[in-house]
Design a protein that fits this description.
Number of strands: 6
Largest sheet: 5 strands, mixed, barrel
Strand content: 15-25%
Helix content: 25-40%
Radius of gyration: 20 Å
Number of domains: 1
Strand order of the largest sheet: 2-3-4-6-5
Shape: globular
Structural class: alpha/beta
Distance between the termini: 70 Å
Number of helices: 6
């Protein structure tokens, strides 16, 4: 009898734990914590544009750096989204104006930069030009910090490997 009671109690606890976790998860394709509002830029009128529209998916240095001079597939893309601190968004769901100062500190200290779209898609943003990126000649931190928590337009090259999506942005300076 005690064993059956213990099994029922453990099953009930597991069910409650799963139900609590489900309440934290966003709706499929949704933005985590939509109550954290953006105050600068809108989906219809972004606050700024980051990057230039590429003439070709990859710059000369990226093509040359590819294995056998063939980088992975990419395509020119323009997306509107909120600049977020990738790490805090995934770990804590934080974004928007209330997270702006923290996000600026995070990206200025090396945390990855993200673009969060209206439908909840999350792209990692990074400079496209391979050799300047490798050699420290271009940096996305300044534009990301300036527009942290803002809705902007981003132009670049989209690439996807496994579950990771990225936009490589051309035209960033240091």
């Amino acid at each position: 009898m005690k064993r059956k009671l213990l099994v029922v109690a453990i099953a009930a606890l597991a069910g409650l734990t799963l139900a609590a976790q489900d309440k934290k998860a966003p709706a499929a394709g949704g933005v985590l914590h939509p109550e954290m509002k953006v105050e600068t830029g809108t989906w219809d009128a972004p606050a700024a544009t980051i990057g230039v529209k590429p003439d070709a998916p990859w710059s000369t240095t990226s093509v040359a750096a590819g294995v056998d001079s063939k980088p992975e597939p990419g395509s020119a893309i323009t997306r509107v989204g909120e600049i977020v601190d990738f790490s805090c968004y995934i770990q804590l769901g934080k974004h928007g104006e209330k997270h702006r100062a923290c996000g600026q500190k995070c990206v200025n200290n090396g945390q990855p930069i993200g673009l969060l779209t209206k439908d909840g898609a999350l792209y990692m943003l990074m400079p496209e030009e391979h050799d300047p990126r490798r050699d420290g000649g271009v940096d996305a931190k300044a534009s990301a910090a300036d527009h942290m928590g803002h809705i902007v337009t981003v132009n670049g090259t989209a690439a996807k490997v496994g579950g990771y999506s990225a936009i490589y942005v051309q035209g960033l300076t240091k």
